[in-house]
């Protein structure tokens, strides 16, 4: 059992390491050139407790059912984040599989955004 957990962790590390530099967006890049869509794939409660200004919230577990809301962004820059990266990777894979061509991952996700002392907005989506 311990070996299986270790293997799973190694696979997760390999998957996250497999993203090229072009697939990441830094905090500085996000601030300098906001994407057409900033997508927060955390839960609604997490989003309400604090999110990056301008972010649209669709929980990763609802994303497949709500893709129609995002079709206008299919060929535009989309930056995705969650708390620490796991849900973001799932969302990126789903979006790319559905034909979204410019999907990127916010390096460090929300955890590093807050850690850097960047501003956040509290409250539900408008």
List the helices and strands and how they pair.
Elements lengths: L1 H16 L6 E2 L1 H6 L4 E4 L3 H6 L6 E2 L20 E4 L4 H12 L5 E4 L2 H7 L11
Written description of the protein model:
This protein is α/β, with parallel strands linked by helices and 126 residues long. The radius of gyration is 15 Å and the shape is globular. It is built from five helices and five strands. The chain has one domain (22-115): Oxidized Rhodanese, domain 1 (3-Layer(aba) Sandwich). Strand 2, helix 3 and strand 3 form a beta-alpha-beta unit. It has a five-stranded parallel sheet. It has helices at residues 2-17, 27-32, 44-49, 86-97, 109-115; strands at residues 24-25, 37-40, 56-57, 78-81, 103-106.
Please count the beta strands (DSSP E, at least 2 residues each). Answer: 5
Assembly annotation: single chain
β-strand amount: 5-15%
CATH superfamily, by name, is Rhodanese-like domain
Q: Span from first to last CA? A: 46 Å
Domains, number: 1
What is the C-alpha radius of gyration, as a whole number of Å?
A: 15 Å
Mean pLDDT: 85
Spans of at least 5 consecutive residues whose pLDDT stays below 50 are: 1-22
Number of helices: 5
CATH architectural designation: 3-Layer(aba) Sandwich
The largest pleated sheet is described as: 5 strands, parallel
Helix/strand class: alpha/beta
User: What shape does the CA trace take?
Assistant: globular
**Major beta sheet, strand line-up:** 1-5-4-2-3
Order of helices and strands: HEHEHEEHEH
Quote the CATH topology. Answer: Oxidized Rhodanese, domain 1
Percentage of residues assigned to helices: 25-40%
Q: Tell me, what is the CATH class?
A: Alpha Beta
GO molecular function, one term: transferase activity
Protein name: Rhodanese-related sulfurtransferase
Keywords: Signal, Transferase
